[in-house]
Design goal:
alpha+beta, Rossmann fold, 4-stranded mixed β-sheet, globular
Length: 136
């Protein structure tokens, strides 16, 4: 495996260089993040997935407000609305949203509740956004 240092807003790869592209929590610390998403879409041949911190979550209330605390200091917490706007501007079809970590305590009780009642819980702290990049 080879690692390359680079700028997420100016990837050094040709268009459609990769079958699929995934980014997990990195875009929460990249500015301007919409430009980085455009680069991910550009270099992906078929699909991409983005793992993001969700501003509409209980974890944001505990750790994200006022600039964040601990490992979350300085992180951008995304919303599904701003992601929809960014991906609409890029004409990305088949956008899907998935959520996890609904109750951020991580306790055994929280995990049990998450398995039993996920639809009744607030949006999860971790949001995954995926979309197609296939060109017709």
């Amino acid at each position: 495996m080879q690692y390359l240092r680079g700028d997420a807003t100016r990837l050094r790869f040709e268009d459609r260089s990769f079958d699929k592209v995934m980014s997990v929590a990195a875009l929460c610390f990249v500015q301007p993040w919409p430009r980085a998403i455009a680069e991910i879409v550009r270099v992906s041949r078929s699909r991409f997935a983005l793992g993001l911190l969700n501003r509409d979550s209980l974890l944001w209330l505990r750790k994200g407000r006022a600039g964040g605390s601990g490992a979350y200091r300085g992180a951008h917490w995304h919303t599904s609305d701003e992601m929809a706007d960014a991906l609409r501007d890029l004409s990305v079809p088949n956008v899907r949203y998935f959520y996890g970590v609904f109750l951020p305590s991580g306790s055994a009780v929280a995990q049990m509740v998450e398995r039993m009642l996920p639809a009744a819980l607030p949006p999860g702290s971790f949001m995954v956004v995926s979309g197609d990049t296939r060109r017709r």
